[in-house]
Amino acid sequence: MAETKTGMQQEENKDLGEMLGGLGWGDNKPTYEDKNEISIRFAKGMMKDFTAQDGKEYARISIPVENQPEGKSWPSFVIPKDMIRENEGGKSMWAKLPANGKTTLSMNEITAVGEDGKNLYKTKYASVDNKDLKKMLDASREQSKGRDSFKEKLEEKKSEVKPPEKAVGAPKQEQAL
Hints:
By secondary structure, the chain is α+β, with helices and mostly antiparallel strands.
């Protein structure tokens, strides 16, 4: 019986070998044009976590706009928190969205000033294809590359600030021993 099993295993391996040999192997990796998902990337600081009334975790991701008109917030969108992953460097995040799906963007706009002097806002909504959303996030990242970072300007700002000449506070009292 041992010979029979070994013989059957050789026949099964031979069939598998023949199947693999008939695949038409080549040197070029195949390309796939139809992707079901797209990856979006964004800075960690542009994400704010929150819990909805139903208890589910979500994240609001803002899209920074450099020359945003006065009185308008940056556009933002909401996705479930479990869809978001952190890049290895820890500075940026990414998520996969359906390639043929749509996402709702929201943006707050000042409509009036209340009696107490506080601004009154109205939220506006727009639906955008996920492919266009990816283009917006990529364009936002590109515009921020030309901008000087706060860390680069920190030393310059430190040199501008001078420490106070006199001590602030009550004069020091001598204690009797």
